[in-house]
Design goal:
Its main location: cytoplasm. Belongs to the cytidylate kinase family. Type 1 subfamily. It is found in: Cytoplasm. The protein is α/β, with parallel strands linked by helices and 218 residues long. 50% of the residues lie in helices and 17% in strands. It is built from nine helices and eight strands. Strands 2-6-1-7-8 form a five-stranded parallel β-sheet, sandwiched between helices. α2 runs antiparallel to α5 (104-120) and α7 (148-161) crosses α8. The radius of gyration is 16 Å and the shape is globular.
C-alpha cells in the first residue's frame, strides 16, 4: 500500500517548495495539485473563457487534458500536449486558478487524477483540500501556514528577483483576498483537517520545516 503525505495550507505558505524537497529526501513522488488547477486557469485565459461563468468553465474544462510528467524527478505539467510548467506560474494564472477551482466539475475531474496518482506511488501531495478531501486517509497530514505579511514578503522578493517592480501592500492584500475566497468557497474549502499537524513557517527556514515534517513522519 502506498504512503501518502498530505500538505494543505494557504497561498504563499511554501507548500510546493517544502513538498518538493520533502519528496526528494524521502524518494517519494511530488504531486503539485495547485499546478493542475493553474493549468485549467491558463486554459480558460488562453481561450477567452470568462472564469466567472461557471457553466462555461465546466464545459470548456472537458477539453483541457491535464497530465503530470516526471523528467529526472522534476514534475512537468502538460496541458493538451504542451509543457506549461513555466506559464502557469504567472500571477494572473494563479488568480484564475483560485476562481475556477471553486467549480464542482473542475474539482471532481482533477481529484480523480490526484487519487489515482496516490494509489500508484508513494506521494507528497500539496494543495488546499488534500487532507480533507483528496487523501482523507493519508499517512501524515500537515497544515502549513504563515502570516499574510510573511507570505506577501516572500512573493514580493520572488517578483523582485525576476526583475519586476511589485507593490508589497498590494500583494499582501491580494493574499488576504485569496485566503478568504479559498476558505469560504462552497466546494472543498481550505481548512485544517482534524488530524492534521499545524506547522507555522513564519519564522522557520525551508530546511527547518522539512526536518520538522520528517520527524513527524518517522
Amino acid at each position: 500500500m502506498s504512503k501518502q503525505i498530505a500538505i494543505d495550507g494557504p497561498a504563499g505558505a511554501g507548500k510546493s517548495t517544502i513538498a518538493k524537497k520533502l519528496a526528494g529526501d524521502l524518494s517519494f513522488v511530488y504531486v503539485d495539485t495547485g499546478a493542475m488547477y493553474r493549468s485549467i486557469g491558463l486554459y480558460m485565459l488562453k481561450h477567452g473563457i470568462d472564469i466567472y461563468d461557471k457553466a462555461a468553465v465546466e464545459k470548456a474544462s472537458q477539453n483541457a487534458d491535464v497530465r503530470l510528467k516526471y523528467i529526472d524527478g522534476t514534475q512537468h505539467v502538460i496541458l493538451n500536449g504542451a509543457d506549461v510548467s513555466k506559464e502557469i506560474r504567472e500571477e494572473q494564472v494563479g488568480k484564475a486558478a483560485s476562481v475556477v477551482s471553486q467549480y464542482g466539475q473542475v474539482r471532481s475531474n482533477l481529484t480523480a487524477l490526484q487519487k489515482k496518482l496516490a494509489e500508484e506511488e508513494n506521494v507528497v501531495m500539496d494543495g488546499r483540500d488534500i487532507g480533507t478531501c483528496v487523501l482523507p486517509n493519508a499517512t501524515l497530514k500537515i497544515y502549513l501556514t504563515a502570516s499574510a505579511e510573511v507570505r506577501g514578503k516572500r512573493r514580493f522578493d520572488e517578483l523582485k528577483a525576476k526583475g519586476e517592480n511589485p507593490d508589497l501592500d498590494t500583494i499582501i492584500e491580494d493574499i488576504k483576498k485569496r485566503d478568504k475566497a479559498d476558505m469560504t468557497r462552497e466546494i472543498s474549502p481550505l481548512k485544517q483537517a482534524d488530524d492534521a499537524v499545524l506547522v507555522d513557517s513564519s519564522d522557520m527556514t525551508i530546511d527547518e520545516v522539512v526536518d520538522k515534517i520528517k520527524s513527524l513522519y518517522a
